[in-house]
Amino acid sequence: MTIKLGVPSKGRLMEKTFDWFGARGVTLTRTGSEREYAGAVDGVDGVDLVLLSAGEIPRELAAGRIHLGVTGNDLIQEKLVQWDQKVEPLAPLGFGHANLIVAVPNCWVDVDTLDDLDGAAAAFRARHGFRMRIATKYHRLVRDYLRRGGVADYQLVDSQGATEGTVKNLTAEAIADITSTGETLRANHLKILDEPPVLESQATLFRSRRAEVTDQERAALRALIERLGL
Amino acid sequence: MAQDIPNKSRVRIEAESICEGFVADGAMRFETDILLQAEVLLDLYGEDIRARAYVTTDPERGEMMLRPDFTVPVVQYHMQGDGFPASYTYFGEVFRKQEDYPDRRSEYMQVGYEEFGGSNAAESDADVFGQFSDVLAPLGLRAATGDIGILIAMVRGLATTEDRRAALMRHIWRPARFTALVKRFAGLAPVPPSRAALLASEAPLQDAGVMIGLRSEREIETRIDALRADAAEPPMSVEIVDLIATVLSVSETCPNALEHLRDIAVEMPGLLPALDRFEARCEAMARRGVDVDSLPFEASYGRTSMEYYDGFVFGFYSEARPDLPPVATGGRYDALTRRLGQGREIPAVGGVIRPDLVLDLGGLP
């Protein structure tokens, strides 16, 4: 059997991952037609490339169906309960940087901290009769962050895309989303709270703590990790 | 999982037998749905409950929640009734996510007992605690007690502005946030630069840019005015901060705690009515045969649980198995009946026992 390495199946994340491994003497390539999700690994033996959606890699690692996987630590921490017992981060890959942040309308000149957000939420609920809505797709991470920050009287509303537009569309009062440059936020008249981000994320190589390995696979895994200089 | 099945039926038998005991003492049997409307629970407990309860969606009825406890349904049931005092008992499954403790059960049985409308709070508190204490006596558990009413009285009596008292009251159930607010009101925490800049600005809304969202310019102005007014207030004195910390750290036997709190009340007279209630409860408990002299009291007990208790709180723990959650918990929740009763309020006190943990500890004879 072989070691299975899960890599995002398309886009810049895939290309940059290929570059990162290539620079360390492990060549990853897609094989077959443009549309076929198949790949090959050269430069080290006993490793198979598995092309997956970046969002599915956490689940596959946790289930032990792949031994290694590249994905953002935002997705790992959002999707896996007690993630550190299921996967081990081996190396940050230095790309795919993004922060998960909480942002409010620019015009909220009175709100810059979590303390402000809590105060505004209390007044908002008293005035409007419902809890202040924060749009996000990172429910667990954001809820935990707000709980630790002592924010009450808010509700999370699910937003799987175009989250920055929800405030203008009156479906949320604030948002929590991934941003790298902040440009989309500015264009939508939003500002980031003056607080540490919910999470600082980048593409990371993870090892599954759940995948079973034979002696042969363990040797292949060790050879790969050595080759990568980790 | 298969070996759990006989155990499940044993848990049910244990639950039934505890429940029968409450019925024999005059309680009415109560049953309710497992699938509850999520909205009322979310509004009550806030977003945090999503981390602990299972929320699902029904295409027609919207968000539904797998019953996280029986309290809300039993309060709703009682408040729709004739309003006469009544006590209820029930048992059934409740569902709680265990993200922090994956080894703990996420589906388990609860047996409950709730008393509504008792005209003498001290007697009702003592009766409920006494019943739980009697039922659980064979297990030799450690009891813990507290009284959120004392903390509420403390905040209500603070010599500071109404806004500050309201902010502290909102966060009694979030100890870290509560302490941070106390520090800020006392001027012991640095003012964030953004706040300082806002207060220094003569027309802060001038550069606000495009107004978007439901929160209006008027609401923003109102909050800025409130912040300015608060900044103009003198800080809360260091003495008050120390007194608050002293109250929160009280942890001794009931009689000693009462004496200690009475000493503090010399400088915090707002505590006195709540302390009179505490004393009356101790006396009622003693009359009911509870060994009050050795019963522990912690002023901060119950602050981090579900935020509906607003008076007496209690729990029973196994000292031999500190890894287990409490075997029983309960308390007084008059404020919950006020929020669910649209203006009406009914005195309410009760608690739940976990029959699965009772069995884990050897069961009741």
Automatic annotation (TrEMBL), chain A:
Give the matching SUPFAM superfamilies. Periplasmic binding protein-like II
Which InterPro entries does the UniProt record give?
Answer: ATP_PRibTrfase_cat (IPR013820), ATP_PRibTrfase_HisG (IPR001348)
ATP phosphoribosyltransferase catalytic domain location:
54-228
| Keyword Amino-acid biosynthesis on entry | yes
The record's listing under Gene3D superfamilies reads:
Periplasmic binding protein-like II
Which pathway or pathways does this protein act in?
A: Amino-acid biosynthesis; L-histidine biosynthesis; L-histidine from 5-phospho-alpha-D-ribose 1-diphosphate: step 1/9
Q: Which GO terms describe its molecular function?
A: ATP phosphoribosyltransferase activity
GO biological-process terms attached to the record: L-histidine biosynthetic process
EC annotation?
A: 2.4.2.17
Record keywords, A-Z: Amino-acid biosynthesis, Glycosyltransferase, Histidine biosynthesis, Transferase
One Pfam family linked to the record: HisG
Q: Which domain of life is it from?
A: Bacteria
* Catalytic activity of the protein: 1-(5-phospho-beta-D-ribosyl)-ATP + diphosphate = 5-phospho-alpha-D-ribose 1-diphosphate + ATP
One GO cellular component term of this record is: cytoplasm
Record's function text? Catalyzes the condensation of ATP and 5-phosphoribose 1-diphosphate to form N'-(5'-phosphoribosyl)-ATP (PR-ATP). Has a crucial role in the pathway because the rate of histidine biosynthesis seems to be controlled primarily by regulation of HisG enzymatic activity.
Protein name in UniProt:
ATP phosphoribosyltransferase
Species, as recorded: Marivita geojedonensis
From TrEMBL, chain B:
Q: Which domain of life is it from?
A: Bacteria
| Pfam families named in the record | tRNA-synt_His (PF13393)
Per UniProt, which keywords does this protein have?
A: Glycosyltransferase, Transferase
**What does UniProt give as GO cellular component?**
cytoplasm
GO molecular function per UniProt: glycosyltransferase activity; histidine-tRNA ligase activity
- Using the record's annotation, list all stretches that form the Class II Histidinyl-tRNA synthetase (HisRS)-like catalytic core domain: 39-199, 235-352
One GO BP: histidyl-tRNA aminoacylation
| Gene3D superfamilies for this protein | Bira Bifunctional Protein, Domain 2
Q: Which residues are recorded as binding L-histidine?
A: 69-71, 96, 110, 114, 303, 308-309
Tell me which PANTHER family the record gives: HISTIDINE--TRNA LIGASE, MITOCHONDRIAL-RELATED, HISTIDYL-TRNA SYNTHETASE
- Under which name does UniProt file this protein? ATP phosphoribosyltransferase
